[in-house]
Amino acid sequence: xxxxxxxxxxxxxxxHPSTHGVFRMRVTFDGxxxxxxxxxxxxxxxxxxxxxxxxxxxxxxxxxxxxDYLASMSNNMAYAMAVEKLAGIEVPxxxxxxxxxxxxxxxxxxxxxxxxxxxxxMGAFMTPFIYMYREREKxxxxxxxxxxxxxxxxxxxxxxxxxxxxEEFMPTLKRFIDEMPGYIDEYDQLLAENEIVLARSxxxxxxxxxxxxxxxxxxxxxxxxxVKWDLRKNNPYSIYDRFDFEIPTGKVGDVYDRYRVRVExxxxxVRIVRQAMEQLxxxxxxxxxxxxxxxxxxxxxxxIEAPKGELGFYLVSDGSAKPxxxxxxxxxxxxxxxxxxLVLGWKLADAIIIFGSIDICMGEVDR
Amino acid sequence: MEIEKPYSLSDYDKNEAExxxxxxxxxxxxxxxxxxxxxxxxxxxxMLTTTEHLVDLGKRFSVWPNTFFPACCAFEVISAxxxxxxxxxxxxxxxxxxxxxxxxxxxxxxxxxKLAPAMRRVYDQMAEPKWVIAMGAxxxxxxxxxxSYSVVPGINLIVPVDVYIPGCPPRPEGVxxxxxxxxxxxxxxxxxxxx
Amino acid sequence: MIKTLxxxxxxxxxxxxxxxxxxxxxxxxxxxxxxxxxxxARFLKESLDFDYLVSITAVDFLDHFDVIYHLRSxxxxxxxxxxxKCADRQSPSVPSVVSLWQGADLQEREVYDLMGISxxxxxxxxRIVLWEGYKGHPLxxxxxxxxPGGGKAT
Lengths: 367, 195, 154
Known about the structure:
The complex is a heterotrimer of chains A (367), B (195) and C (154).
Chain A: E1 8-12, E2 24-30, E3 33-40, H1 48-52, H2 61-65, H3 72-87, H4 93-122, H5 127-147, E4 156-157, E5 160-161, H6 169-191, H7 195-201, H8 209-214, H9 220-224, H10 231-234, H11 255-279, E6 298-306, E7 309-317, E8 325-329, H12 331-335, H13 339-343, H14 348-358, H15 362-366
Helix pairs in contact in A: 3-4, 4-5, 4-11, 4-14, 5-6, 6-11
Chain B: H1 9-26, H2 36-44, H3 50-60, E1 65-68, H4 73-81, E2 104-108, H5 116-125, E3 131-135, H6 137-141, E4 163-165, H7 172-186, H8 191-194
Parallel strand pairs in B: 1-2, 2-3, 3-4
Chain C: E1 3-4, H1 7-17, E2 22-25, E3 29-32, H2 37-47, E4 52-61, E5 64-73, E6 78-86, E7 93-95, H3 104-115, E8 118-120, E9 145-147, E10 151-153
Parallel strand pairs in C: 1-6, 3-6, 7-8
Antiparallel strand pairs in C: 2-3, 4-5, 5-6, 9-10
């Protein structure tokens, strides 16, 4: 006697405890196994690209903060670099070092949230997340000292950064950097060899390297699949060629590899910040740009290695004070291309973990 | 692989689109902020009895929030819930994703027209008494994105709002101040009548 | 360092294999006719090893659209820009490259949603960030936005 079964379509989201923002999934189940998957987004589409064409270049800087709101400094830096390439502006040395310090601290903060949220999805309800938030609060204190804001900074300007660091910044940063490796080891001691973590993440959601390259994936997802590609080494921008650091890669491309890649990147970020702190020179922090700011007609595409992947700004200028086309190449949006292929054949609980390991931020996906 | 789907997914799309268009057409006037019931209750009861006072204190210190987190302000609510700015000392530790189990809906982030029917549905699923906090500039008036083709210019067009917390994003201390204002309202504090 | 290939050199190589497809070149860019995009892209992927599609964009220059492809070769570490013009404003259409690079999937849907350029051969050509039945394509220059403090503007 055979049982009659029928596939059922279930809707998850947009409001759901496990989704990283307002993301909706329409999933077709056969029993508990997923047979078809359709992601739906656009619930946070605010029209930043269209609004950007009505505001001047400097007025667009706060919009870039709100794209990937967990890594605002990186977004600011990418936009500032794109406009500097368009208009041919030089950046002083001290500003470059400050930018690198802020960007690497931002990478630490973003990976802390990314890994913490992944463990939230795996079932360790809040404990790793709250532990990692303890460190993140210290980083946010540092940013508060520098620019007065905790989440959306608007710190970079065309030609440097907006203001110099106060005196108490360096000693606080030194104290933080000295104790951070100890904390990363503490997390590893609790989580890396844990039986439940290994059982739920090893072998789950495997992304082969050639498929990753074909699907334009970037960031820790690409490196977790074994492809040694990082824009800070392969196409050094700003002053990254002066620092000594490594690029961690995974072997298989499963959820566990992506998690390990993020933890190792945190260690390498600490290394870069330590070197930048030692080499920080004195000097100006900002080149004066003419007001009203009107870059010459032309176009520029500048990619950087943001914590979530390759973030690029493509600007087209027609010689006026407002951009003609303000296009954002968002890493989280493009990384979602592979989600459907990774999830088919797994159960619902695994789908949540695979989605968490790609680590997206809805502000970027929808813009 | 080909499987026989029971429903056509394009029907879902059309259905959703109709709901969004209907809501956009209907949401022209903002809901009035709910303060009138406060005056009426206090007029009817000349003085609050001890039992009612205790019940109000109980309600005030056990408001369970529902997580409805579109965008960036969400991370300041999460910071307010984490160990440094702990808001479980105010009785709000239990963050419930399901609206059936929650009293308070904190809307933290920009709301777009595509999300609006889902938000209205979550609000309708909450049981009385319920309260709504609008957090951040985007929910108050559209914020930095006002004028965009897809952002709701103020969520009081869709749900009635009790407390507005300004900021972009407001600091966790500001969020806690908003909660304390709501607690005074929940406990029917007489101070509120003079505001 | 990723080397940006000279547009003229790449245009010459394409012109040898696929005559009558290239319409011009720049220091970094190769201009191609819109019907020939799929063949040129296949040539670039198979013969010149461009295995990574960085991004697909469209720009609205009031009388025509430009569709721009940024391509990169991870194996050999160089990059090039491919550009095509689409003159039809009523129902513009360009062949899709989804069969070569899966990464084009979501990006082409977004270009269709916001600019209105449809891609022939795409398996799932429907709106992605706006809802179905939305009238108009917002990123076009004739879509008017009511920006506060500035009156109406395009």
